[in-house]
Design a protein that fits this description.
The protein is α+β, with helices and mostly antiparallel strands and 219 residues long. It has one domain (2-71, 83-218). The protein contains 8 helices and 6 strands. α5 packs antiparallel against α6 (148-160), α6 (148-160) crosses α7 (165-182) and α7 runs antiparallel to α8. The protein is globular and about 50 Å long. It starts with a strand and ends with a helix. The relative contact order is 0.22.
């Protein structure tokens, strides 16, 4: 979960494109999606749908929030500043970081011989891990070390169901993070002082997309 920083959206999008172009050069994304049984065309559709969706936050409701201590200053080279805190936080859902990963996880569950119990077990493991490893950051959002969830999801998938480790790692990693680091942390948003808290965050760079890709590569 991360605050809505409207001026940052374009910058995040550009950074995401640059990152994805870099890893595409070494074929990591293609390898990951191939392990999930996707064609190249379907992989690129999912890839750029996640990128485009990361720019879209759909508001759900708002809550009264407390004024937090002064957040740490942004680097001097940062081109924009956070919008002012108004006393309320809008809770939204991010299309690229939440809705698309959830839809693709359901697709994987329905199109692979993966028992529902195994998927639920993997999700619970990563949700618990994500909850305990994530922390609210006043004025910014919920933070968590980037590679904790993908490594955890890959290990959990290999232990629970080695034959279906790739789809299980993606499902566990993405859904588990959404539950543990976003949904279970909704109780903390009143203390963040952020104008908007988005479930799924900024999309690809909130770690949901990266978690899924890295988890599959490791599984």
């Amino acid at each position: 979960m991360s605050p809505f920083r409207s001026p940052h959206k374009l910058l995040l999008f550009v950074l995401a494109v640059a990152f994805l172009l870099g890893i595409l050069q070494v074929g990591l994304v293609s390898i990951a999606f191939d392990k999930l049984g996707l064609s190249q065309q379907a992989a690129f559709l999912l890839l750029f749908s996640s990128l485009a969706g990361s720019l879209i936050n759909l508001p759900l409701f708002s809550v009264r929030a407390e004024q937090p201590p002064e957040p740490p200053p942004l680097p001097v080279f940062w081109p924009v500043r956070l919008p002012p805190f108004t006393g309320r936080t809008i809770v939204a859902v991010n299309a690229g970081g939440c809705l698309i990963p959830l839809t693709f996880s359901l697709y994987l569950l329905l199109n692979n011989p993966l028992p529902l119990f195994h998927a639920l077990l993997g999700i619970v493991v990563i949700a618990v891990l994500s909850y305990h490893m994530s922390r609210p950051i006043a004025g910014l959002g919920i933070g968590m070390p980037l590679f904790v969830a993908p490594i955890g999801a890959a290990l959990a998938a290999l232990l629970i169901n080695p034959e279906q480790s790739a789809p299980l790692a993606y499902i566990s990693g993405t859904v588990g993070v959404l539950i543990g680091a976003d949904l279970l942390r909704l109780k903390d948003i009143r203390h963040l002082g952020a104008p908007l808290a988005s479930i799924g965050g900024a999309g690809t760079f909130d770690g949901i997309f990266i978690t899924g890709i890295v988890a599959v590569l490791l599984a």
